[in-house]
Amino acid sequence: QEKVQQSPESLIVPEGAMSSLNCTFSNSASQSIWWYQQHPGKGPEALISIFSNGNKKEGRLTVYLNRASLHVSLHIRDSQPSDSAVYLCAPDSGYNKLTFGKGTVLLVSP
Amino acid sequence: EAGVTQSPRYAVLQEGQAVSFWCDPISGHDTLYWYQQPRDQGPQLLVYFRDEAVIDNSQLPSDRFSAVRPKGTNSTLKIQSAKQGDTATYLCASSFPGNTEVFFGKGTRLTVV
Q: Tell me: the pLDDT tens digits for A68-100?
């Protein structure tokens, strides 16, 4: 069964700084790796996904994937207080079957 | 477009009681998922359907849990004889054929006392 580890458990950054979140997964055959954002009392919402080695950029978000090391990272440029949330890493093992990590709690201080 | 709808939003039970959760997926989404999210944990997949067929229910905790999707649209997750360890948020999600993004509802927060 897929194992997903996220670090750090929590992160506090000042407004305008870069936030960097990490995730390692165990199944080298995983399809896309997804990042979800979850605010209190809400369901997770998809932010960005990556399939191929390398990086992918969408707006303030950049994600890096290294399949050899089974590592993916998410970087949020110019972090805003509204970015404060739990960030969940979720490899897709096929047929949209997601396995979630425990999450990283991000707090962006004004 | 309406999102995934779940009801109720909250439920409080005593141990031994039964409860049912209802989910209405996004129209046209053939795959429906139920996840359990304990406090301060990530969501854990319980069961998922493609149309009315169960594809994988191997992670349902015990025979106290059951899920159905009889017409391939709405779904119900039921817990018989709830235990304190069942306290969690239960999330329903759905996805469209060929599109890998999974859309989540707001969840039902269950507290068993």
A: 999 999 999 999 999 999 999 999 988 888 999
Assigned token pair, B82? 């709830």
Q: Which class for B16: exposed (0-12), middle (13-18), buried (19 or more C-beta within 10 A)?
A: exposed
Dump strand ranges (E) for A1-110. Answer: 4-7, 10-14, 19-25, 33-38, 45-50, 54-58, 61-66, 71-76, 85-91, 104-109
Q: What is the pLDDT along chain B (113 residues), one digit of tens a residue?
A: 689 999 999 999 999 999 999 999 999 999 999 999 999 999 999 999 999 999 999 899 878 999 999 988 999 999 999 999 999 999 999 998 766 799 999 999 999 99
Element (H, E) at B8: none
B45 inside 8 A of chain A by CB: yes
B1 touches chain A (CB under 8 A): no
Q: Which chain B positions have a beta carbon within 8 Å of A45's beta carbon?
A: 104
Positive or negative torsion for Cα B4, B7, B10, B12? negative
Using the beta-carbon criterion (under 8 Å), do B45 and A98 form an inter-chain contact? yes
- Check CB contact under 8 Å for B102 and A96: yes
Residues of chain B with C-beta less than 8 angstroms from the C-beta of A10: none
B40, containing H or E segment: none
Q: Is the peptide bond before A8 cis (omega within 30 degrees of 0)?
A: yes
Residues near A83 by beta carbon (within 8 Å), at least 6 away in sequence: A19, A76, A106, A108
